[in-house]
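Troubleshooting: if your tokenizer reports a length mismatch, compare your output against this known-good record of 351 residues.
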Amino acid sequence: AGHAMLDVPGLTFGANLQPDELTRLTEGVIALVNGTIQGQGRINWAAGGKVTSTGDFSSANIDLAAPFGPVAGASGSIHFNDLLGLETPPGQMLEIRSINPGILVENGVVKYQLLPHQLVKVERGEWPFMGGKLILRETVLNFGHPSAKRLTFEVQGFDAKQFVDTFGFAGLEISGTFDGVLPMIFDDSGGRIVGGRLDSRASGGTFRYTGTKPKAGLVAGAVFALLSDLHFRSMIVRLDGDLSGEFASRITIDKISLGKGGGVAGSLIRSGFSKIPLKVNLNVNGPFRALIQTAKAFKDPRQAIAPVMPFPIDSPSLDVVVIENRKSEEQHSTTPTNDVEIRSTPAPSEK
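Known-good structure output:
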């Protein structure tokens, strides 16, 4: 009979040490771990052969790669009621600064339990998301052998305007609050949404295009003004596809009323369509992650420029010079313009 104490004042993972060098159980579960864990465990054995073990460990700001995407700033404490079997009671909690399964979500909290045979029961996860909440429903993940991980996210109070403003889609304004569900599958090939659906709340919203109007006649301009100011009572967004590859969105806009633009001609057109039920169906197909990156580049072009620059874009030797009143030689224009010229100044060792 006796006991053994396992004292871990600080075990730091990084370039010189990874969890899979200590135990094969982490292979295929986590990788690229950076951070420190600390805690203490106790193993007890009795004269009759019974062995029990417990432990309490904690971490702060752990970064790692997981099957569902990169995780940054994971912090929490865990209590093992069976340390040797890696089992815990329900209600363990982990705070996560950010996780990126395709769209970045921040400041989340996950409650979980470790079950026998490398099963992880996710009791609930919750993140603030675009003016509302993103909730991870209860599920059990099997890390005992390679398998697809199925996660179902519930969206509550998604603010379409905040989404459009965040990603900087030029010339587009959408308002409305949405609820829905996003079933997701993560495996060796990445993550994908299967049968996702978002429904607008009964209050409806607006759909406006505020870009450049076509140079056409009065009536065509009036029609454009009307159709670029839609008020809807129902919008359904269906989502399917890979987060890192081809992605399909099917948008159904129903119970539409036209806006008030278009002047006199617009009033005539609006009165003519006032008693006709209108319904808009949009199909959008494209590389999801690339679309998001392109939209972000409207606000911050550094992500688009950096891969093709011959030097780091934040290099201290980079000079940005504003050249005023340069005339366009190509277009033979006499209108003064302001241009931006980027010049690379060689480092002293290269001169």
